[in-house]
Amino acid sequence: MMCLWDRMIGEKCKIRLGCARKKCYLRCGIRPVYHWGKMQYMEFNQLPVEVRARVKEWLAFEYDPRTREEVQWLIDNDLEGLQEAFRCDMTFGTGGLRGLMGAGSNRVNIYTLRRVTLGLASYLRSIYGEAQELRVAIAYDSRNNSQKFAQEVANTLAVNGVRVYLMRGERPTPQLSFTVRVMRCQAGVVITASHNPKEYNGYKVYWADGGQVVAPHDAGIMAAVATAKNEANGKRIPAEGQVITLGPGIDEAYLNTILQGLYHPECVRAQAKMPIVYTPIHGTGGALVPQLLKRMGFANVQVVPKQRDPDGNFPTVQSPNPEDPDAMNLALQLANQTKAVLVMGTDPDADRLGAYVRRPDGEYERLNGNQIAVLLAYYTLKSLKEKGKLPKKGQIVRTVVTTRMLDALAATYKVGVVEVLTGFKYIAHWIQAEHNADRFIFGAEESHGYLAGTAVRDKDAVQGCGLLSEMAAWCYERGQNLVGLLEELYSTYGYWREEQRSLVLEGEAGREEIAQRMKRLRENHPTTLAGEKVTRVVDYLENEVNADGVLIPQSDVLQIFTDAGSLITARPSGTEPKIKYYVGVQCAYQGWEASQAAGGKRCQALLEAVMGV
């Protein structure tokens, strides 16, 4: 009986202990592996042929011993895990490349990132030609292996003739976007998995405008990746001067740009002692947010001690996501001790902002992503109008799942609203279009991402912390807090309530279930949902246009509108194994608690109805 290695490689091992001994040695002599009997081999043979081909490559190729040991362990112990690890080559989603770290073509490791980087270098050269110097900026977050991955990407680019600007230490993703623009790079790369659990990492690519790549560049890069030669042991030592480590000057430039974009520094000076609590949740925000608040003039900012330092294990939280109330528990404990007016948290790469506000009764009110968007949009619009700087034909840009209360707010200030697909890269892409940078006022997505101005082309929680803190001081000057202001806005524009629920469906069976759920909604969408009549269905797999008359790219998103003004959206996640359902309702404002109860009840009923289809 042949061993698994014999069957895969088609050669006999040089050393053989036989089936009865239960072990054999690979002919390469790397390590002993358990011999497989006929039944186990048949299980392996049932895997798709393309999966087995990739496994064969990773065992035969000159990968490092630890990687080959991990692949062999999967063969011996976890065929399902093996299939997931080698199911495909990684591709771009809404957040770039993102996935579990580990061995395999569908995992984040130095080999998959090296291959993607070779494709990126090749694609850049095809676009810009041989004569032009290519420059790429690289940043990385606090996750495990992020620094190692960033150095690998830097070396791979450098040995392929690209000049690299590498950030000094862990730095926020929005600062990478800023750096691409300031250093006049053709592209940027950030190693991050945003707010995902600790087992994940990722690779985001930015284009010369500072925004994440979109069509056609995303497809162009992946096409170049597909033809890139997989170098396991290629030359990795770049020429001197090809990798330049950026010093504190880039921090200064970024922070100064944010400071120049604030609206009411006089309110901060007047409320300098206003107590604030901030947590970076073990991420990159700790490097810059406290500095920013101090330079603004806030003298009573407390950073959560146990979450101050970067730590890729995120030891104090289950999920390093400021959207998750559990991730903010330590910050709220400190806030109760210090009676902080405002509590803020950022995710590991500091592009998402979460916040709580102290109410007059001393309790803390969580602001969801849409509420923060409304507050920041209102503050930006009001401040620009008062200063006479509101642009002609100005626009707020939001994603299709972000609150439409922004539309009502924009109408008051006679500015437009542009709707784009989910993912902040589409907001950045709109800004880059002809003349749009002069019209852009504010961008938002419901998942706690915001941007004012155009110096950065991605959601920016560092800037968001500065704006929200200044706004809190501005409210304090008026004898008010942010919740009180939000109630004023609800009284004017009506109460808008949004909720979102996700179903995690992992593996091949999970992907099929997600596809079937979307198919059922498309082919048999309901005529009523929770007693509300369906009046319109929008399928983004078909051609749709935004407010500018621009064609929106096709995407697996379905939206259902009802006669009660409700909006229900379903879409698969672009970065995680889940399907997401969003619901938004509106009604007359009847006070904070009564409106929350009524709006929440309607949202829950609609969610249950649509998820049952």
Summarize the structure.
This protein is of the alpha/beta class. It is built from 21 helices and 25 strands. The strands form six sheets. Strands 3-7-6-4-5-8 form a six-stranded mixed beta sheet, sandwiched between helices. Strands 18-25-24-23-20-19 form a six-stranded antiparallel beta sheet. A five-stranded mixed beta sheet has the order 10-9-11-12-13, with helices on both faces.
User: Which regions are unreliable across 5 or more consecutive residues at pLDDT < 50?
Assistant: 1-42
H/I helix tally: 21
Sheet/helix structural class: alpha/beta
* Cα gyration radius (Å): 26 Å
Measured by DSSP, the beta-strand proportion falls in 15-25%
Mean pLDDT across all residues, rounded? 90
Number of beta-strand segments: 25
Characterize the main sheet: 6 strands, mixed
Distance between the termini: 51 Å
Fraction of helical residues = 25-40%
Please state the overall shape, judged from the principal axes of the Cα atoms.
Answer: globular
The strand line-up of the biggest sheet is 3-7-6-4-5-8
Describe, in plain words, how this protein is organized in 3D.
The chain is an alpha/beta fold. 39% of the residues lie in helices and 20% in strands. The strands form six sheets. It has a six-stranded mixed β-sheet, sandwiched between helices. A six-stranded antiparallel β-sheet has the order 18-25-24-23-20-19. Strand 16 and strand 17 (449-452) form a beta hairpin. Helix 6 packs across helix 9. The longest helix is centred in the last third of the chain and has 20 residues, at 592-611. The protein is globular, with a radius of gyration of 26 Å. The two termini are 51 Å apart.
